[in-house]
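Hi C.,

You asked whether I'd gotten around to modeling the 384-residue construct. I have! Everything is below, sequence then structure, no commentary in between.
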Amino acid sequence: MPQSEYNVSEVPGLTVPVVTGAGSVQNVGVLAVQHGGHRALVVTDAGVAKAGHADVVRDHLRAAGLEAEIYSNVHENPTTDDVHACVEPARAMHADILVAVGGGSSLDTAKGCNFIFTNGGRMQDYRGVDKASQPMLPFIAVPTTAGTGSECQRFALISDPDTHQKMACGDVKALARVAILDPVLTCTQPPFVAACTGMDAVSHAVETAVTNVSTDESLALSHEAFRLLIRNLPLVVSDPDDLAARAAVQMGAALAGSAIERSMLGGAHSAANPLTAHYDIPHGQAVGLMLSHVVTFNGEDGETSQRYASLAGGSGQEDPASTLNRCLGELMDILGLHRPLETFGLERKNIGVLATESADQWTARFNPRPLTAGDFERFYESAF
């Protein structure tokens, strides 16, 4: 397929070029060739493989003349062990391009694999930013969920199985060369997964809008992401066949992911990660449950309050944090994600441990108001 038959969109602010539209996954082969690929490892999970998406991608790659194999053992919230397991088939086939098909876990595993395959060592060696000294393989992201925005981020979020902490391993060389946003691929998401991933994207838009390192550019991305998500995510839930709404949510997630690249995240993500690590609460649900408590806390700061007001609007009769929380609460109800933390098996005696771990999370340092373990204890108590 000649290049003129597909469009690589350059939306202002997006960190990665994107190919959009129903059926756009058919372009994966020509894109892989364009980026120098001959031997492609398709990285995915068992559920996406069962849905047939990985086979479709592999077949398009092969039709374009590439050797292509599927690795489908990605697990949710990947650990360092998952990354090293993915490196083995990449080495066996001498892969020269990686194609991730799936949600954030598949994309992060592929990015983690890229670090180890090209630079050696362990994932712990790449915690932080720009620790890779050698070039990395070209990488194509094909998300089948709309939430993490990992397709537009340089970071791989990989859990350390010993500490239960997520390590953010980022390098500009790990960015996807192109992302394919095909809304048809999201139609196989179970409704609960669509709700969780969508809420994750909303939380990205909210948190990136107020971090202490945000910029005018990141703020513009956050606002557009929030607008697309808050309007269209309920439509995806009420009418799963609405491809226009699904495409809008996909773009919102990509914009919010690009905002993370410029602005990072804050306290809600810091509080959510220990909940996922210890109680297997889906990340999007966990961050959604903690977000309102962090918004209330941050809203006590004048500048942050003004940013919340700009993000959510409102009648003028409520303070900005309350206006935003009302909007978020209505969305959580629509998505069916509201639950007290105690219903997940959390006991009050464990709140102190969770709070300490939250305060040690990398994203906590970017919250607009400084956070202590005591603050996180109050968040958990409020959500209990």
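If it helps when you're writing up: The mean pLDDT is 93.

Thanks,
B.
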